[in-house]
Fold:
Amino acid sequence: MSTVTLRDIHKTYVDNEVIKGVNLDIHDKEFVVFVGPSGCGKSTLLRMIAGLEDITSGDLLVDGERMNDVPPDQRGLAMVFQTYALYPHMTVAENMAFSLRLAGVSKERRMERARDVARILQLEPLLDRKPGKLSGGQRQRVAIGRALVRNPKVFLFDEPLSNLDASLRVQMRIELSGLHESLQSTMIYVTHDQVEAMTLADKIVVLQGGVVEQVGSPLELYHHPRNLFVAGFIGSPKMNFLSVQTTGVQDSGTTVRLPGDATITIPVQPRTLMAGDRATLGIRPEHLRIDATNPTLMGEVLVVERLGGETYLYVKVAGGDTFIVQTDGNSRAKVRDRVPVTIDGSVCHLFDGEGQAIPKAERHPLSLTRHPEVPLHTEATLEQTYEQPIQPREVPRQAE
Amino acid sequence: MTSSVATRPQQPPPARARSHRSIPARLLVAPSVILLVLWMVVPLAMAIWFAFQRYNLLIPDNREFVGFANFAYILTDPTLWISIGITLVLVVSVLAITIGLGTVLAVLFNQEFPGRGIARVLAISPFFVMPTVSALIWKNMLMHPVNGLFAQITRGLGLGAIDWFADFPLLAIIIIVAWQWLPFSLLILLTAIQSLDTDQMEAARMDGASAMQLFRFVVLPHLNRAIAVVAMIETIFFLTIFAEIFVTTGGGPGLATTNLAYYIYLKALLEFDVGGASAGGLIAVVLANIVAIFLMRSVARNLDT
Structure:
């Protein structure tokens, strides 16, 4: 068992608060990814868990034990750094066994353990090399090996793949995934790459400005973003946003009017929105269709990006907004074409004036938390899967 | 698919570019080469020439080729061996002090503390004081048995005064030179420490290294090269320490602070024995080269890894 619990964690540098009260439960064997734009505090949070940064206030519990004042090496964690941080004057074997050497383990035992770990990571032929003679991927593997040797309760990864080239990154991502599968240990992983987050995570923690915006399984975040930030951050290309006016609120859904006078009905629960309120409509590029049969909007193509398998059209629609539309790779659309855009209300998201999402009437079947210990949710317990009670976040409004 | 796969046979690299430099290039290099030759080779050649002459400035007319007589005389002179011993003691002890203390200070000055910028400037400033001036300051203001600050303090504590240059002359010289050169090693080692990856330190902390182990296993190996470079440069300068000795002890009392450089000075300008001094100079050159070869070897090995 190895769980990590964060209770109202704060971090303040002089008078700059960078972590503003984080609550989080990380279960045993869970792969948790912290994701967010640069400067959101995700690395700081990881370093606080590791013990490399002091915790200003709040409690950090590992396996239920308070770890705030325990030195980094006694917390039972191991960390893999973005820069690998290998010791350049030691061989691969010595690097991996360094923690054992400090712990006073005999040389034979140390080397035996290093060889065992090297076997898992296919590093055996490299054991006598120095890090300077290794490629980036090999160094990364040694860094992971150094963490493995310690047999930690929890693995911490600080953007471990961002120094690798694209193809190696994909390969290492798959290896990490396999490693998690075979080790069955708890892992916390920091990245700004949402593909890594979506593919690796059991649970994603989206951070912004030192605040947890949402916690959930990758598909929960994708299908049920809690606010505008998460909606815009998860998914690539970014979700399209459109300012709309609410015209009717029924039990079955809320009807909004688009700038071009078209109306669509979105199946969301009738909550805070009233008829006449301003709201924001969100729709992902992959859910927009170029379809002449019953178009919602007409738009003019500004840019065409062809990726081969798919094509991204940047379409300027009535009202001046620009939509990104993901369409077929064989699309014949050209710049300055007028194209019909169809919006399907059932896959749209609706956000109120505060930027908070209006909950959908029905949950997406795949969007339930993947965590093995938590049984599949019924509708009634859904609220509990959120790691924090849902409450409207205080948005500072000095500007007004 | 046409035959676009076939590649043209590779052209051999232009042979001329590497084989010899063109004449204009040689012409352009010539001034510095000529200057170097004049600057280094001519004095060396003259020293060699004089070393085989009987040439005393008291009787300049009585000048003749004497073969190895100067060397034979000097090598049997116990003063030479004493001075070589003192030179080695001086070099080794000042090296030990500057590198040892320099490493410690570099680690300290790398920490954050209020007034660090000023402290760094102060720590480095002795290097800007010229050797004669610093020797005079130490002699008259610090180590003087009557007026010196140290004597004032020890007398104030009722311990009496130490006459540094009479009782511990070599130690006094070592302290002065170490004080002068400490900033140099501090500066180089500090920059070396600053280039140490902080992630490495943090990784070692996660691995369970204590502060001492961190220093021993991470910082010190990182400083290896910088220390080798400092040792090499300092050795070259410490073999020829002169001003500090000249200003303070004058090589005495007796021969207590006469190093090789000062011995050659005594021969040439107090005994006016140009031939003997030149022979001593050549011995110094040989000695310096032996040390240099050892140092270069160890440094080169260090730079390799």
Remarks:
- Confidence is low (pLDDT under 50) at residues 1-7 of chain B.
- The two ends of chain B are 50 Å apart (CA to CA).
- Residues 106 and 190 of chain B are 5 Å apart (CA to CA).
- Chain B touches chain A at residues 197, 199-200, 202-209, 213, 217-218, 221-222, 224, 305 (CB under 8 Å).
